[in-house]
Amino acid sequence: MSIDLHNAVAVVTGAGSGIGRAAAHAFARRGARVVVTDLVGERARTVADELGPQSLAAGCDVTSLDDLQAVRDAALDRYGRVDLVMNNVGILAVGPVEDIPFEAWQRVVDVNLLGVVRSNLIFLPVLLEQGSGHLVNTASTAGLLPYGFDRLPYTATKHAVVGLSEALALYLRPRGIGVSCLCPAGVATNIVEQITFYGQPAPPRGPAFPVLDAEAVGELVADGVTENRFLLLTAQEAADELREHGTDVDAYLSRLTKDAL
After folding, report:
1. 3-state DSSP call for residue 15?
2. What is the C-alpha separation between 107 and 67, in angstroms, rounded?
């Protein structure tokens, strides 16, 4: 079920910068032909130029089924197949829970969660017909742990992406398709461009996990795909937090509550 990235065709959303760009480079270094997509088409073209003539660039808004379908069709027209899809688009609404408006919730859900759902609707039939392939969904440690109440729409959607990914793994593995869920902690990217602030600004909450550069995370993703690993963590300290959380949720919440006082 693991795939060889050499000559594989990889579609990466949100690949114009940050983790998506780094993953695209990591896939290409292993011989993949990469379809680089981004909401900002110029960014996608810049990254595709970095990767060389075997790559393809496309503007893509993951809130649009038509855009995702156009990406799929372009990939099939150019390469005849799709082997790997990485869903890597995310935005944040940050502020006190009571200050984040419903419209902000709708926007974050539409991008972070339904963007993955739309991608599945477009690309999964291709992978299922082939009987092979791999999905990577970018979630967050905020989707594994409860600390992110200061960015609750993001936290809620990333928890949903984790659950969606686990269920997909159970469904797709017997059908020859692997699933990985990337849960980054601190990563040096331009994510601040995707943040909308509400209410009184405050420092972001969260454990003091190490901050990695995007290139290291891209390598982690490429290795995770070739090794067919499900959970990809950028900080092993997050695994310790998960064990504590799983052992006694009430005790874990009590500790976090005391730490927040």
Report:
1. coil
2. 17
Please give the sequence-ordered ranges of beta strands (E in DSSP) within the chain, or none if there are none: 9-12, 33-38, 56-59, 84-87, 92-94, 133-138, 177-183, 186-188, 195-197, 211-213, 231-233
Whether 198 is catalytic is: no
| pTM across the whole model | 0.94
1, 29, 74: which is closest to 218 by C-alpha?
29
Whether the Cβ atoms of residue 12 and residue 27 lie closer than 8 Å to each other: yes
Question: Residues 154, 171, 198, 252: which is the catalytic one?
Answer: 154
In whole angstroms, give the CA distance from residue 78 to residue 41.
18
Give the pLDDT score at 95: 93
Whether the pLDDT of residue 67 is over 90: the answer is yes
- Looking from the CA of 109 toward its CB, the CA atoms found within 13 Å total 7
3-state class (DSSP) for residue 85: strand
Q: What is the predicted pLDDT for the residue at 29? A: 97
Neighbour count for residue 212 (Cβ, 10 Å): 20
Structure tokens at 230: 């499900």
